[in-house]
Amino acid sequence: MCGAIANWPRLLTRSITHLRPGGWLELQDYFVLLQSIDGTLEGTALERWNRLLFEGAGKMGIDGRAAARFAGYLREAGFVDVMERKFALPANTWAQGHEAKLLGEMQMTNIIQGLRGISTRLFPKVHGMTMEEVEELLVDTERDLRDTGIHAYYVV
Q1: Most buried by CB count within 10 Å: which residue of 46, 113, 146, 155?
Q2: C-alpha–C-alpha distance, residues 152 and 89, integer Å
Q3: Enclosing domain of residue 99
């Protein structure tokens, strides 16, 4: 839902009014900013693309870190027994274990399929980049996404 909701507190306040007593609401989302604990993301085209995406979304009123505030928003809206679980979602197949590799492969495919659609509209409009600059960045970003030496992940 990241990028689709402009006002999370309002949505959640309205949501609780549509639940019966004892009803529940589940939210799943991630921070827009990729991370790495070993520094392999630093200085890459993937990091630059992700930073430009995060900053550009912010300039358009989209909070790329809204998921970090979901628990508080839910409590403020009147929800009780709020539970929050966080985990790392690999950006490609670098992580160990079958499930982590599968999730990483799906996430990498998801990002690659959305790269051009997001970037070719947002980057020229918000960052003033030319289409040639955007395309060059996207080629390098896709290369980095396929590089299992870059240990990037999203916090979900």
Answers
A1: 46
A2: 9
A3: 8-147
